[in-house]
Design brief:
Number of strands: 8
Number of helices: 14
Structural class: alpha/beta
Shape: globular
Strand order of the largest sheet: 4-3-8-7-5-6
Order of helices and strands: EEHEHHEHHEHEHEHEHHHHHH
Length: 254
């Protein structure tokens, strides 16, 4: 499969729709290869430019899909042919991914969330997909238990490992433990199982299509997300100016 990788805000993204991401995972599993699938939104771009370890993680990632309509809108303004279906958030992706895993017999392991939350989400998805093979472990374990957690994951032999610890912890954890992980597809999944379990309210999908999920989340968790949505984007303004200058320069040369 092929994709035209694009550059925005001095980082790179791969505008894949859900169907292509699922195909990519299937190819990794069929060929017994290991692939890291990351994603970018404005928050991750903010962290990327301030955290050297995050930059190392994204350099190691094989695919970086778009998670956030603002990046779609910005890419369009820069002249890239990016469409709405190339914005893939886990609220929309997790069900098609788990459905395909159940149909193909792939083993899925979810690492993250508070104790009991991921297990509750797994019970819910197993009722939806009875043939799904899935295991979970919460993400609130101390460093001294890290090897035990990795051994638990290895014993399960997952084809897909979803790491949902929030940014940048999930990226750091994958990078630190990559040589011990055997899953074919390793994904940074954020709080997707928290949504399934009902621990976090799910934004209405019409808000997602309009790029307004951030507003719903901000209203739901203002103390935790206020800085992310109201302050961090302003720090990206110099990068936006640099993007515009680059486009104007290219047009001037053509």
């Amino acid at each position: 499969m092929s994709c035209h990788r694009i550059s925005v805000l001095k980082t790179v993204i791969d505008p894949f729709p859900i169907s292509a991401l699922n195909q990519y995972i299937g190819e990794a599993i069929a060929s017994h290869k290991q692939r890291i699938i990351a994603h970018h939104n404005l928050h991750s771009v903010y962290l990327y430019h301030r955290d050297a370890k995050m930059r190392m993680f994204y350099e190691r990632a094989d695919i970086v899909h778009i998670d956030g309509m603002p990046l779609v809108y910005w890419a369009r303004l820069l002249g890239y042919p990016v469409s709405r279906d190339q914005r893939v958030t886990y609220v929309d992706w997790i069900q098609p991914l788990l459905a395909m895993a159940a149909a193909e017999g792939w083993h899925v392991f979810y690492l993250g969330g508070r104790p009991g939350v991921a297990a509750r989400a797994a019970e819910i998805v197993c009722r939806q997909y009875p043939t799904l093979t899935i295991a979970t472990h919460h993400g609130y374990f101390p460093p001294e238990e890290n090897d035990t957690v990795i051994a638990t994951i290895a014993a399960f032999q997952p084809h897909i490992l979803l790491v949902g610890m929030g940014m940048p912890r999930q990226e750091h954890w994958i990078l630190d433990n990559l040589d011990k992980l055997t899953a074919n597809a390793i994904l940074t999944a954020g709080a997707c199982f928290d949504y399934i379990a009902g621990a976090i309210p799910t934004p209405p999908r019409w808000m997602g299509r309009l790029g307004l999920e951030w507003l719903y989340r901000l209203i739901s968790e203002p103390r935790r997300l206020g800085k992310r949505y109201l302050i961090e984007p302003w720090a990206l303004l110099p990068l936006m100016i640099a993007d515009v200058r680059s486009v104007l320069l290219r047009k001037g040369r053509s």
